[in-house]
Each structure stands twice: as structure tokens, then as C-alpha cells.
Design a protein that fits this description.
This protein has about 80 residues and is mainly alpha-helical. Helix 1 (about 5-25) packs antiparallel against helix 2 (about 35-55) and helix 1 (about 5-25) packs parallel to helix 3 (about 65-80). It has helices spanning about 5-25, 35-55, 65-80; strands at about 1-5, 60-65. About 70% of the residues lie in helices and about 5% in strands. It has a two-stranded antiparallel sheet.
């Protein structure tokens, strides 16, 4: 059974970026302004997803077990980097 790589990669990026921001809180440039802080976080999620869409990596067909493994690794990264 095949699955497009779009959803697993998005969930992996969500977990990876969330884990990085939790482990390295000094990466946040705008500490005082919550709106700019949110924009920075959303941009750091949106830019990799945009790059994956433009390079057509998300259109590749992968095995469903590989997709589930990618999602679980994103969740695990987010959980372990707290």
C-alpha cells in the first residue's frame, strides 16, 4: 500500500520545529512581542513545507509503514527535546 509523502512530512516538520524551539529557546528573536514570536514560529514551519512543495518531494509515493515511522519520529523528537 502506498501513501503520498505530504502528510507525514508535514507532521514530521511540526514535531521537529516544535522540539527545536523547546530545546533552544534562545532561537526566538522577538521575546517581547508575541505577534512577532508567532510569525517567526509559523515561518519556520512554513518555509520547509513550501520548499518541499516546490521540489515535488511531497508527491513521492512511499510505503505506509515508512509514513507512520516518519510521523512517530516527529512526535518522538518533540517529546524528547522538552
Amino acid at each position: 500500500m502506498k501513501w503520498k509523502l505530504r502528510i507525514p512530512m508535514m507532521l514530521f516538520i511540526f514535531g521537529l520545529v516544535s522540539g527545536i524551539y523547546q530545546y533552544f529557546p534562545n532561537l526566538i528573536i522577538f521575546n517581547e512581542n508575541h505577534l512577532l514570536n508567532s510569525i517567526q514560529f509559523l515561518a519556520s514551519i512554513g518555509i520547509p513545507i513550501y520548499i518541499l512543495e516546490k521540489t515535488q518531494i511531497n508527491e513521492k509515493q512511499v510505503n505506509i509503514l515508512f509514513g507512520i515511522l516518519l510521523i512517530l519520529s516527529g512526535v518522538l523528537i518533540d517529546y524528547l527535546m522538552v
